[in-house]
Structures are given as C-alpha cells and as structure tokens.
Amino acid sequence: MVRTPCCDERGMKKGTWTPEEDRKLIAYVTRYGCWNWRQLPKFAGLSRCGKSCRLRWLNYLRPNIKRGNYTREEEEIIIRLHEKLGNKWSAIAAQLQGRTDNEVKNHWHTNLKKRFMMNKHKDSSVSLAHDDHQEQTEVPKSSEQKTAAADLPNAETTADQIPQTDYLDYAELWSPQPSSSDVSSMTTDIAVAITGADGLVVEDNATSAAMETIYADFSNDFWTEPFLADNFYDPNGLYTPLMEPECLYPLFDGDFLYGSEQHHQGFI
DNA sequence: AAAGGATCCAACCGCATCTCC
DNA sequence: GGGAGATGCGGTTGGATCCTT
C-alpha cells in the first residue's frame, strides 16, 4: 500500500506490489510451489528479490490468511503469549490460525500494547510486587524465550490452556471494535472468495479489488496458456520444483491442479 | 472545508539461524 | 568442523487514510 515504487541498484523493483506482480507470484507459486525463493522471481518473471516475494506471499497472498478485526480470543492469545514469549511474533502467530507474524506484530503495536500498558500502569498502583513479575516476563532473556518457545502449546491449543497471570484483567484489553466473528474478512479460501459466492466477504482494502482482478485474469489466460516459467524450460529439470504442500492452495489438492472441470468452473 | 496530527499496516532492512556441501 | 548460500525473524520505516481542530 505504502511504499513508493522504486528500484535498487541492481534493478530490483521495490515498494508496493502491483496486481500484475501479485498475479505472477500467485500463478507461479500455486503451480510450482515455493521451491527456492532466491530463484523464484527469475522464473516467475518478477523484478523482485526473493525475499520480497517470500514476504509478499507469506504475509499477503498465501491462502488461509485471515484479515480484518481480531476476535477476543485471538487478542487474549496474543497478550498471554506475548507475556510469556516476548516479541516472538512468529511463535505467537503460529497459535493463531490464519494470522501472520507481521500482522500480529502490527496489531500488538497499534492496539494491544497501548491497552496493555494502560492496564499495567493501572495495576502498578495496586501491587508493586506484581509489577516486578511483569517486568520479568515482558522482556524475557533470549534463553528464557527459547525455553518458553519449546514449551509452546501446539496449534490446537486454546486460550484457556495457556497459563494465565493473576494480575491482568483481560476484559479491559479488548478492542472496542466489533468482533471479527461479525465482520472480519478471511481468505480462508481465496479461490472460493473470488468466485463471489453468496455470503462470502472479500478483502476490505484496495487489494481486494486487485485480487479479484488477478483471479479474474486467470479465467482468461492462466489456466489455458503456458506459464511464463515454461518458456525458461531447463532440460536439466532445474526449473522443476518440489511441490511443497504448504505452498499450495488447499483447493488445488487433488484433481483441481490438474484441470478438473468442475472445480475450474467453480473457481472462475 | 482545510490543515495538521495520529494511526495503520505493507514492505524493507539487517541480523540470526538453518541447511547443504 | 566450517564456509556459503538460503531462509526466517523482528525492528523499523513511511505513505495512505482517518481523525481532530
């Protein structure tokens, strides 16, 4: 959204991603997987560094990314895990299905931190002893973080299973915004979302329109025309990536990837 | 209505860690 | 074991948008 497009000294484009770039990246990763981020932009026809492609995919384009408002439960998990782990955003995000570390980090800095500190300040007037404990846990030493991370609950862990502290009244930390269960948009199934099926929400920002354009484009040429990377065919098979399941759209599991007419029509 | 400040969040940067040879 | 390259992670930036005056 934000950065002014520019190029670095090697001609690599920087700044905001265009719908066309998104389309290329989605097309490539869904078809070939993210086998090598360094090489990927070259084969995908992108003038971006691999790092930028990876970030864009992981934080924005990959499937099952939940966007929009956070639920009470999600905020509770973030607060509790942040107490326990510190700024281990990836570990925290791992406990929140569909949330990225970047998004969790942003949400913490823009919403939760403020309220957390206010609450902390309020409590400090009540109990200094508790505050001391909090100072320890809020900025854990790296070794302590590692230990805590090793103790992390698995992805199925609910907020109730995470140890609570006795000095926080989480009820005062909740966002005044409506629960995301009411209004949040979720790219649980991007492929379905872009079909415009009844009852489905799309992205609530400018990119949603871009995404629709991207996938609309698919109906025109992506599934019927050879992909750009095919033009770079390497007889040694170098271009052929390992298909990493986590890099694929769930919808693409099974026959759709290979052209199921039924799925194809649903997708478009 | 306009100006200025505050907020939000996508994206970049640099360092840490992992993996492979 | 160690060096090089790839990937992951957290801190930070900065422009768009929202809010207040």
From TrEMBL:
It comes from Rubus argutus (Southern blackberry). Residues 123-161 are annotated as: Disordered. One of its GO terms (cellular component) is nucleus. Residues 123-144 have a biased composition (Basic and acidic residues). Residues 9-61, 62-112 form the Myb-like domain. It is found in: Nucleus. Keywords: DNA-binding, Nucleus, Repeat. This is Uncharacterized protein. GO terms for molecular function: DNA binding. InterPro entries: Homeodomain-like_sf, Myb_dom, Myb_TF_plants, SANT/Myb. SMART domains: SANT. The keyword Nucleotide-binding does not apply. PANTHER family: MYB FAMILY TRANSCRIPTION FACTOR, MYB-RELATED TRANSCRIPTION FACTOR. Residues 13-61, 62-116 form the HTH myb-type domain. It comes from the Eukaryota.
